[in-house]
Design brief:
alpha+beta, three-stranded antiparallel beta sheet
């Protein structure tokens, strides 16, 4: 990200895959959408989402659209 654009708008969605295990953090899945680019990432657990967000704070360029 360029120094001028040191912000990101993110839409975070999460849902329970298994109602019976709704108190278990492994039962949750989620998606993060970068509003400026429309890029989306999906996750199989809340821990994966947390790690992704932590990594993005360390390296904001991680949220830039991939060139593929």
């Amino acid at each position: 990200m360029s120094p001028i654009n040191r912000y990101a708008s993110l839409l975070v969605r999460f849902w329970s895959e298994d109602e019976a295990k709704s108190n278990d953090s492994d039962a949750w899945c989620g998606e993060i959408e970068h509003i400026q680019s429309g890029q989306r990432w999906t996750f199989g657990s809340l821990e994966e989402m947390r790690q992704f967000l932590t990594d993005c704070l360390d390296d904001p360029d991680r949220m830039l659209p991939s060139s593929s």
